[in-house]
Amino acid sequence: MASNSTASAPKPAASRRVPVTLSVKAHDEKSAPTTKLADAPRSGPLVDRYGRVHDDLRVSVTDRCNLRCVYCMPLTGMQFLPRDELLTFDEIVEVASVAKELGVKSIRLTGGEPLVRHGLVDLVARLSALGFGDLAMTTNATRLAPVARTLYEAGLTRVNISCDSLREDRFASIRRRGDLRTVLHAMDVAESVGLAPLKINVVLVRGVNDDEVEDFADFARQTGRVVRFIEVMPLDAQGAWDRAQLVSGREIFERVSARWPLEALAREGDVAPAERFRFVDGRGEIGLISSVTQPFCGTCNRLRLTADGDIRNCLFSDDELSVRDAVRAGDRVAIAQLFRDAVWAKYPGHAINDPSFLRPVRSMSMIGG
Ligand code: SAM
Asked: Is 321 helix (H, G, I), strand (E, B) or coil?
């Protein structure tokens, strides 16, 4: 499926398509089933060719971020979308309301860092009024504490907070801006206002913070927060990902369970990306998001809306369909069809471990993680 978003200005880094050694594979046009958008359903919910129902939409509100995490963005030189390319809040709400009619039940706001976009509380209130079952946000929490209560009152149901180290100096060296104390304080505030249960996202990088697995597991035990270990993916803007950096979910499971026995819990709704485990003694829970070593594409129910209005059916696929023109034309039927087409075009899996895979053009912060 060709992107139809070419009418807008070129996307940053669009010319960079970087082959990644050892891992990655672009969806293989020859082996993949032929994508016939003409065959895409014209009505009904968002079901793909493999029967997967899509009811979860990640909405990126900006590609900008106030941090520069080592596995995500370069320290300097990151190019961001011109502001006039971003969907306005009116446009995001319009797209979300069409998605709701198509069966989308949960929305997660992300970015970039969602809280760097001015007026986010207003967007939350408007999305909440549409009546989604779950309206969450993923944030680095550096700006969360002062607005946590207002966000909750506006209808945000919970937050996922990213935090890759429990040590001040290391936090600073991974995130390169911001500080740990602010983030830990924001966790307390978020819980106190009702944005719970908190999920804490930890990206482990071999040789950088992998010695903190047990510390984070203990943190989960002490606080009741669900610590989710995420395998580092080839989605950094600088193209420096290396499989040697990866700390597998299996290794984390073995290390944590050697100290505190774990037992598996059902995945939420059977489709959440995290494999969930609770400590056998009843003190807390961890999650493993093993996107690289144990892809969970077979149960994927997720779609993404980028900040500049592209529907994206997979983190690792460059296939994008722009809804911007349709939303600006007020054409809800066209928006709905773009959703159906995007879902219909989805591949059975991201095939990240095939040697011929090419990393996607847009990086995590540009897509919306
Ligand atoms: N700024 C927000 C935050 O920090 O949570 C939301 C956007 S961020 C892109 C969403 C999540 O993606 C974070 O948990 C971040 O750690 C994770 N992430 C970013 N780059 C990644 C990569 N290359 N591999 C795995 N996770 C990554």
From this structure: strand
